[in-house]
Every structure is written in structure tokens, then in C-alpha cells.
Amino acid sequence: MSEEQAYFCYGDTTPVRDEVIQAMIPYLKSKFGLASSDYGHSFGVKAAEALNDARETIAKAVGASPEEIIFTSGGTEANNLALKGIAYNARMRNKGKHIVTSSIEQSSVRDTCNALEKEGFEITYLKVDAVGRVDPKDIADAIHTDTILVTIQHGNGEIGVIQDIKAIGEICREHKVLFHTDAVQSFCKIPINVEEMKLDLMTVSAHLIYGPKGIGALYVRKGIRLAKQIHGGFYERNLRGGTENIPAIVGFSKAVELFDWSDVEFFAEVRGYLIEKLINSISDVQVTGPLDNRLPHVASFVINYVEGESLLLHLDMHGFSIATGSACSTKRLQASHVLTAIGIPQEISHGSIRMTLGLGNTREQVDRLIETLSEVVNRLREISPMSPELMRKWQETGNI
Amino acid sequence: MYSKTLMEHFTNPKNVGEIPNADAIGKVGNPTCGDVMWIYLKIEKDGDDKDYIADIKVKTFGCAAAIATSSMIIELARGKTLDEAIGLTRDDVATALDGLPPIKVHCSNLAAEALHDAINNYQQGIKPEETTARDEDNEH
């Protein structure tokens, strides 16, 4: 990136660290053999060693045993494997067809639940409060004899809310229901331990922690059976077929190895600075999600009387990459379901913007971003007929 | 996704503002939809004693396509007689912008409707202060 450019979308994807790239290269060039080669020739042995080491590293990072880590092509596949794996297995054994989830899950959980619903599974989408929290009591109330799985996202990348996974885990144990969490946004951002959290399944991914795209993992507690989704060989504890992507697995592992909590301290500080500066520089703006107990990289807002795609494009032209949850910025012209779930009306969610911070961000970049953002917001408000009075009139009478 | 021409109209919308003592206003869209366009008209008689658009401005709340299409329709309509202007369509706007992505075509529709609404309001004698936004079947 050039000096003028500044990237504020680390929650969408991250650049791969140099050391990660260096770690991967041998497995692309010289140590390129198949890890699971049955005859143990040396090319394969090197790859198998790397695979084992990677499995150990990632298991250690989450408090699991190595054989409980199943490598997948990313977070999406891991979520699909968890949900469909449990659902189809339960159906085969006539064990029930009810799944409990939240209304703010990421699309790979949400869309998979929608698909399972069409196939006859019963899904409860729990409501959240005004900052996105699921009440663990609602989970206890929702569980009944037909329930086979609870899946609740650990941390939300759009509004930063963190769920009380420990409390939910206890409830699930009590009711003897399996518990999965999508930890893609929370992994290497806040502490995770599958034992303390009483998790049975968990999804993690590499490309939000300076690792390569196309690789993730599903933690599957020993003894849990899943209906295999990708057939083709007895890889990954016979839960996921296909030749292992050793270079990517090595990259994933290296990214986890390089992680340090000081990284989080670093960008959390810049994030705090950004939030304070933004709300003090721009009028009629609201932070979305909780003000405390928030994922350390997420800074999300709604700015009144302007529209998100316009903001994004203007900022992009000035070299700043940000994200928006506005309907007009999507392929289906639908407002972010997360903002809708926390009660933000559509006329306000149009002005949604989100910055997710990472290792490349500085206070100086934030200063430039906020300066430009203020100018852009003022300009867009100048050309807009919207005003507080008009918004009030619309919300009260339905006329403008 | 957007053409160069559209981005130019979005970055520097040409004809933004209000006309004090406008002869008519056309209003379409609403904040829930995410597109609001208000078009202001100043009408005078030309040499043939026909009503023509002497001045026209727009205020827009919406995405890049909304801002660009509303800016463009003002350019197309300025100086035209009312008969000519009412014949402007969303296709004219889209063509002038060198095309629109399919999901944004509705913005050009809104721009054309805002103009037609303003002209209709003028012809029916509906004053600016009496004007509310058209309640149209929107495609949002």
C-alpha cells in the first residue's frame, strides 16, 4: 500500500505476514509431497510432519488436543461442516431436528440454517438486545427435547459484540445439547479455551489473522460424530476428504505462532482513539454495538443523513478502505441483518460505516481518515434534503 | 462497477441545491428506501410562449447511483420545454451516464420520476409548500 492509502478493513481480510509467506514457500516448492502418502516416501514425510506440527500449534492455541482439529478450506466450510454434520447425523439416528442460533450470525451460519430449515429442520433464531447480546436464559428456554445443537457466534465482526460463551456452554452441558461457536472474528482477538467454554465445536480461520485465504479449521471434541460433507479419502479423522492444503496449513499455523497479545493491545488502542475522535468530530452519529466488552478491532457507527456506499466511495477515492452495512452497497439491496436485529431502523442503517483495525493502522492514519470523513459527511449532507426535522416528520407521519 | 461518467457526476454533482421561490418541486423516495430526490424547477416562457425549464436543481440523499442519476437528469432537462422534458426517460439518464449496473437501474427510474413529478406539480398548480413525496410502488 502506498503512503497515502490506509486500510481499515482488517475484519474483512488481512494481508499475509512476510514470515508466514516464507514459512509456506518450501511446501510449495521442495516439500510438496502428499502428507498422507501411504508409502512414506520422504517428500510425503516432510509434509506429514508439517501437518502434525500445525495441528498441534492450533490445538494448543484453543486448549484442544491435536486430533480434535479438522482442517477445512476456511471458516465457511467449517461452519457448514459443523451445522450440516450434526444435523444430518442426528436425522440419520432420529435424534431430533431443532437447532438454536442467534439473529446476528455471519452468513455462512445463517444461510446454512436457512438451508436446513428448507430441508425440514426447525431453527430458532434468538433475538438480541440493542447492542447485540444474546441472553443465555433465552437459550435455556429455547432448548427442548428435540434440540440437537446450539450455535452462537463468539464475537460479531459488524458491531463487535461478544457473547457470554462460557454461560451458554454451561447451559448446553446441563441440557446435554451440543454447542458450536463461530470464532472467526474472535480468534486471536480475545481469549478462547474450548474446555473452559464447554465447547463441542468451534470454527476458526486464517485470513483474519495475517494468514492465507482458503484455510480454516473446525474444532470437534473427541467422540462427536458428524455426517461427512466432503467425501474422498479418510483424511482429517475421516471427517473431511481431499488432499490437505499443506502450504496453507503451514501458513495458518505460522500466523497463529506469530500472534502475540501485544498485537491486540496495539490496534485496540488505535481503535479507541478512532472511536473517540470520530464521535467528537462528526455530529448526529451513533456507535453501534456495545461501548465496552467489545471485540478489540471493531469500530462501527451509523451516521445520520448520509448513505454508506457514497461514504465508502468517497473515502476510497482518497485512499481509505472502510466498510458499510447499508442496503445500497449490497447485491440484494438488503440492509445488514445485524443492524436490523439490534433495532436500527433502515432509514438510519443506510448511514452505517465500519472500520476494523489491525497491525498496519496508526493514529496518524486515523487523523487523516477522520478529517476526510468529516469533509465528505458535510458535503453529502449539504446536497441532501434530509434534516433532523424531516427525519422526525418521516418517522412520525410517514410523509416527507 | 460504475462508469467513469457516473463517478464524475457522483464526485462532482453538477446541479445541487435548492431554488428559493421555486415554481414547483418534485419529490420521490423516502429515507427507509434510502433514496430521496427533490427536484426544484423555475419555469419561464420562451420565444414561442412555451413553458421551459429556466433553472433546475436537485437535492439527493442516496448511494452513488442516486446522486449521479439525479445530477444527470438535471443536465438533460435544463433549458428544455416542459413537453420535451416530460419525454425524458430513465434510459436517457442511463445512456448519458454510459450505463448503470442492473441493480442500480431503479435510481435512474427515480430521477426521471422526480423530474416528471415536478413538471406535473407545476402543471397542476401544486405549490412547493404543499408538495409531499410521491407514494410510488418502489422496487427496494
N-to-C SSE string of chain A, H for helix and E for strand: EHHEHEHEHEHEEEHHEEHEHHEHH
Spatial order of strands in the largest sheet of chain A? 2-8-7-6-5-3-4
**Alpha-carbon distance between the two ends of chain A:** 44 Å
The total count of strands of chain A amounts to 12
Structural domains of chain A: how many: 2
SSE order of chain B in H/E notation? Answer: HEEEHHHH
- Give me the oligomer status: heterodimer
Catalogue the unreliable spans of chain A: none
Poorly predicted runs of 5 or more residues of chain B: none
CATH architectural grouping of chain B: Alpha-Beta Complex
Largest sheet of chain B: 3 strands, antiparallel
The shape of chain B, in one word, is globular
Order of strands in the sheet with the most strands of chain B? 1-2-3
CATH fold group of the largest domain in chain A: Aspartate Aminotransferase, domain 2
Question: Can you give me a brief rundown of this structure?
Answer:
The complex is a heterodimer of chains A (400) and B (140). Chain A has 13 helices and 12 strands. With 400 residues, chain A is an alpha/beta fold.
Describe the structure.
The complex is a heterodimer of chains A (400) and B (140). Chain A has 400 residues and is an alpha/beta fold. Chain A has 2 domains: 18-258, 3-Layer(aba) Sandwich (Aspartate Aminotransferase, domain 2), CATH 3.40.640; 261-397, Aspartate Aminotransferase, domain 1, CATH 3.90.1150.10. Helices cover 41% and strands 13% of the residues of chain A. Chain A contains 13 helices and 12 strands. Chain A has a 7-stranded mixed β-sheet with strand order 2-8-7-6-5-3-4, sandwiched between helices. Chain A has a 3-stranded antiparallel β-sheet with strand order 9-10-12. The radius of gyration of chain A is 22 Å and the shape is globular. In chain A, 50% of the residues are buried. By secondary structure, chain B is of the alpha+beta class. Chain B has one domain (4-127): Sufe protein. Chain: A. Chain B contains 5 helices and 3 strands. Chain B has helices at residues 4-11, 64-77, 82-86, 90-96, 105-123, and strands spanning 24-30, 35-45, 51-61. A 3-stranded antiparallel β-sheet of chain B has the order 1-2-3. In chain B, a hairpin with a 5-residue loop joins strand 2 (35-45) and strand 3. In chain B, helix 2 (64-77) crosses helix 4 (90-96), helix 2 (64-77) packs across helix 5 and helix 4 (90-96) packs across helix 5. Chain B starts with a helix and ends in a 17-residue tail after the last helix. The mean pLDDT of chain B is 92. Classes of the chains: A alpha/beta (400), B alpha+beta (140).
